[in-house]
Structure formats: structure tokens, C-alpha cells
Amino acid sequence: MLAFIIRRVLQSILVMLVVALVSFSLFRFVGDPINSMVGQEASIEDRAALREALGLNDPFLMQFMRFIGNAAQGDFGISYRLQQPVMELILSRLPATLELALVSGVVAFIFGVGFGVYTALRRRGWVSNSIMTLSLIGVSLPTFLIGVLLIWVFAVEFQMLPSFGRGDVVRVGDWWSTGFLTHSGRLSLILPAFTLGLYQMTLIMRLVRAEMLEVLRTDYIKFARARGLTNRAVHFGHALKNTMVPVITITGLQLGSIIAFAIITETVFQWPGVGALFINSVRFVDVPVMAAYLLLIALIFVLINLVVDLLYYVVDPRLRADRAAARH
Amino acid sequence: MSVTNRMKSLRPSLMAGVAAAAMTLAAAPGAAETLRWARVADALTLDPHSQNEGPTSTLLHHIYETLVSRATDGSLEPRLATDWYIHPDDDTVWVLELREGVTFHNGNEFTAEDVVFSLERVRHDSSGFKALHSAVTGAEAVDEHTVHIQMSGPSPLYVQNLTNFFIMDSDWSAENDVEDPQNFAAGEENYAVRNSNGTGPYMLSERDPEVRTVLTLNEDHWDDAPEVTEIIYTPISEAATRVAALLSGEVDLVQDVPVQDIARLEETDGVTVTTGPENRNIFFSYDMTSETLDSANVDDNPFAKPEIREALALAIDRDAIRQVVMRGQSQPSAAPLPPFVNGWTEEMDEYSAPDYERAAQLVRDAGYPDGFSVDLHCPNDRYLNDEAICQALVGMLGRIEIDVNLVSQTRSLHFPLIENWETDFYLLGWGVPTFDSAYIFNFLVHSREGAFGAYNGSRYSNPEMDEKIEALATMTDLEERDALIAEIWDEIMEDRVFLNVHNQLLAYASRDGINVEVHPENQPHMADVTFD
Fold this sequence. Notes:
Chain A is 76% helix and 2% strand.
């Protein structure tokens, strides 16, 4: 187990280096940060001097090595746009994104599994049919449009929920701020969390449904029924449990994408998270923030993959058995 | 009423009654008036000399003050300076008489030393505004409330450059080690980025960058007390969300209203839309000097030929762009300067209806029987409907056999093309913060050398013209100077250096009962806002 974890950590570092290299090489195509940093009155000479001072004229590899060298010491530099230390900026935005991702992930998982089981067991009812139809909409409509529609209905027409922002937040500890503890904070979470989780929910639901239908046809389910077990025990104790391995994989990986791709939802709802920070940084060509953000996302994906791998061991006894067998 | 309160009142509980009672109290006459203000972007920093950028200066005008300020009609108004004039014995010296009895938010008195210090700081290498003060060689505090600014030569219009020059407290700056603006290469954050100490009518009480900034009234401010006593400033980058927040009553004033929503908002009950001209013109320009073009399919440079430039002027249908692209929200004109800029005349702005037949004939006569093709570079996130304006022009030029290949991209990719002379044909918007034509000539017409011609993408170069432009800077006889400006404009318009489209309009939307005037620099001041 320990060897496995060490091996995975080493692989992860390699993955992150590659991600950093690729993203760094892409920055050259985003544009020139100097233009956003100086006023329109700045002369050509002044611009050149600033470019030189920031090291933007250095060869690509040199810039990259400098970035990695500083990053290894925990120094990600100063944001060109907001003039604050990058790490501090990202850490101050991270709680908003993590809370949003967590809530939408949990919502997506609970409703996804629930609906999936329901539609697998009652394949013909009109409830099932409408759930399936609605899920098609969830998969096919772009996040942006769903967000704007929800704002229109619930904020403008019914004025029930706020259209933007995070509401009032409470500081917990040194750098964590939470919206869970205030009424406006909880209300503000509803629309963005639903928007962000909708796609994941339909994905999980369809996966659970397909897996359940598959499992329900297998012999051991028939045996279980023959043993006279209750429907409840058969459906949840045997069938659902056996569908969970792929579902956990997908949910885990999706949690990474929820964090990474919260960008659109955060922009639509003016959610003060790292995604919105990243988008604004791209517009400004704020290289230090972009580089640090991409590294962070890579780190999150790597960590989630690690956790998912470890969860397999917990959920699926066969993996443990194989390992045990291989050792003999 | 705040969102939180309304949410609570929806719940059928005792809380609703309490909240409602609290709100009634808050709305009592003479009580605090909060204004919730939203626009597309936040101020980048609170350091008043670091970033020369619109939203940053707009917010800072509430906390810090300038010596003179720009009124909504474009004229100069006294602020921290009560009077300004050129020294009677020395025309290279500006004399500024300062307001007495002004204090900074921390209680320090505002004196001539603070002006001298701030002028030093704004001229520092890492300042975003230093180019506006390049003619300054030094400043001297003659007494507590008089400053002499020494210029390198006569600079009759220097005072026009002071409208975004904020005054900092020299003692506070020394205490907090912020005597220079943020230096990016040094990699350390400057204390002034997040803390402020100005003389303005509002004080910073809360700031979460890109989330929320709360300003409260400075009770000790020298001017009459404004009606707005608290400002909650929220950036909302997504246009649809910004408008929704106004419609749902979560904000009171939206500054950057998307053009396509103006008509609908005007018809919405409870919402008022105010429009006015912005100090910004949108125009096309082209490389009219090089031997050949990079992107054209012909061996010479069509834009170097006067016939082709005339053909372009005949083919652009400004009224159609106004109606279709801008939905009526623009002022079409032929000259690339807004009406309130010194040097503008009504005749310059006149344009004729498009004449495609004659334009096509001119293209053929110029030696392109089958027309030619060229790339047009356009930003897609900088000006109102910038990409759509370019698309419209592509269609219009298609009718005279000029096959335009549109390359539209983000601003950080677009502007370096002009800066590096890598574009043959491009769209640019230009504002004139000094409200004088010389600013346009310096950056767009003068040959590129030193501080001149940074945005001269047409590569226009005329030594005689350069001399005239340089002469403008030091001419003290304003009548003679205006005559020279007119002469320069005649030449530029005749050479067709610019293909101007229109003067951009600004729109602010607010809930009914809030009166706000459109500011030509797009820098509305909440102290001027009144309630019905």
C-alpha cells in the first residue's frame, strides 16, 4: 500500500511538471500583458523596458525554469492585474470554489443515484419518462444558458433567489471564508450549485440506470430473489452496491472537472471563486495567476485520482483479494 | 432594501415583521442613503499612481482627490486646487493655489508638500501615469498652499493632464513605505494596493477585490455633504447577470449597459436609462506608407493610393452601422475626435452618403480591375460591438471588390499588432483625456520616435507635420495654436489617415428616482448622484 502511494506521488509530480510545461508554452498565444499593464500614453521605450524587467524577452525555457524554481519554493510571484501575491489571491478565492463544487457534487451524486435507481426499477412510468427527458435537456443545454435561464426565472421574475455573488460570508480560521453559515450565503449557493451540478447529475443518473439494468439481469440477483430477500435488500444491498465502482470513478473524476470547469458558472453568477479569477486573468494576460491556477487544477486532479484509486480498494473486495493472491 | 432582508421577509415568520420594521426605519427621511453600484470590472488596485485604467481611476475619485476635475460637460472644475495659472514672469512655470482646511482621512492636513510629493511619485518609473507628466522637471512648495511646477518649456495645456492625478499624504506614504508605486519586477506587494488615505468624500470601509467594496461618508470632507452616504460597489462581469441584478432590485445603478439591452430597459417599469457621448471615437486605419502589405494579394500597397482611401470613405455606411450594429447608440462622424475636444468643428464631422458605384470605379481605376484582398484586424472585447462593426465593414467593402478577411481577437493580442506594426488594416478606439487635439496628434499622427507615435499604426510620417505637432506643445498664444490645430486637421482629413466610424455613446441604467449624469470619461461620481 505504501509503495503504491509513493509510486503514485512520484507519477503525480511528473504529471504536474508536464502540465506546467504545456500550459506555460500556451501563454505565448494569449497575448502581451504589457498592453494591459501600462496606460495608452506609455511610449514604446517604456513598454520595452517593462517587458525586459519582467523577463518576458527571455527564452521560453528560461522563463519556465525560473517559474518552476520559484514555484518549488512556494513563490508564485505578484499578479500583474491585482498586484497581490498570487498564492494569497488563489487561496482567498479557493473556499468559494470548493464550497460550490462540494455542494453541486453532493447534489449531483444524491439526485443522480436516486433518479438512476428509480428509472432503472420503474422503466415505464411517466415519472421515469419525464426524468429521462429532462436529463436530456440537462446534457444538451450549455451551462451558460442554463445559468442565465435560472437567473431570469428565480431572480428576476420571482425574486426568490439572488442573481449574483456569494451573499454574506463568515470567516473561519485564517483564510477560509464560508457561506454555509449565513442565510444569504445558503440562498446564493442554490442557483450556481444546481447549474454546475446539472450535467454531472444527468451523467451519474444515466450511468447508474444503465449499470442497474445490467446487474438486475445477472444470476446472483435471481438467486437473491429466490432466497426470498426483500426487494429493498435486493435492489440496494446487492444491485446498487455492485454498480458503484464505475459510479465512484466517474463521480470522483467529475469532482475534479466541477472544480476545474466551474469557470463558466462562476462567470455567469459572479461567483468569487478561482474560476472567475482565472478568466479575468486570461483577459488581462496575467501570466503568474494563470500558471499557478493551472498547476493547482493539475494538483487537484492528481489528488482526486489518487483518492479514487484508494476507494476502489474499499469498495471492491476483489481488488484486495487479487493483491493478496498475487503476494502468495 | 437588501437582498437578505427581502429573502427573510419571504419566510412567513416573525422575522419578516422584524425585518420590515427595520427597513421602514432605515428609509426614514434624512437617514443614510446607500447606493449599490455595479459595473463590468473592479478597480485593479487602490494605489492611485499605479494603473492608468478607467475603472481604477473611477473608484479612486471617490477616495482620493485631484487638483482639478472634469465636469460632465468636459470643462475643468476646481477641486483641491482653487486656482491655476501660468506664472506671469515665467511661462514655463505653472502656479497652483491650493484649497485650505482640507484634511486626509487619517486627520493629517493637506498642504503643498503633499502635492510636491505626489508629483514626484506619479513621475516615478513604475507609475502608470508618468507619460502625462513628462514635461515636468520639478515642483516647489512656495508656501503652505501654493505650488510652483517647473516645466521643461512652455506647457499651456499641462493642467488638462491633472484630472486623474490623485494627491497622496506624504507623511502617511513615508510611514507605510509606499513612496514609490508598485514595482512588478520586485515581486513585493505595495501597502497602498489595499490601503488608502485620501481627502475624498468617501472612506474605504471594506474591500474584497472583485467581490465587494464598501465606501462610507467622510464626515470631515470640505465640500457640501452628498446625498449618497454609503456606496456598495460590485463588479459583475457578465452582461446578462448585470442587467438581471438591476431588474431584480439587487443593485441600484449599472454603469456598463449592453447596447442590445438599452431599448428593453427603457421600456421596463422602474428603470431609467441615461445615455450620453463618451470621450472615445472608433475608427479604422491602415498602413498607408509601406511599399507592400503583408496580407494583400497584390504586389503594391493599395492603401498608399489616395483613390483607394477615398473609395473606403465612400463605401462605409455609417448610418447603417449606427442603426443595425449599434441600435441607434452612437454618433456617426467623419473625424476621429469627440465634439468636446478642442479642435473639433462641425464641418469635420460631416460625411456623405455611401456611393458604391463610384467607389468601385475608383478601385478599378487605381489598378485593381478584380479588386484585392487584405486582412482586417479587430478586437472583440474592447469597444462596444467592436467585432460586429468590423463585420459590417467587411460586407460593405465586399461590394466594391475589396475582399476583407476579418481577424478578430482579444485585446491583448490585437493591440500589440498595432504597436509592432504587424497589421495592415485595423480598428482602434481612442479617447482624449486632455480634451485637446494635440493628444491625438502625438500618439496617432506624429512619426514614431521617443514618446511620439506609439499608436501610429498607419506609419504616417511627415517631417513638416511632426514639427507642427511638436510646436503645439509650447505655444502660449492659444488663438495661434488653435489655428495651427485646424491646419493640421485639414491635412490629416485630406490625406484620409483615419476612416472614422462614430463617437461611442455611454449608457447608465438605474432604478427610478436616482439621478446620475453620464460622464464623458465614463467616471461618474456618486457624490453628484441625487435622489428624487
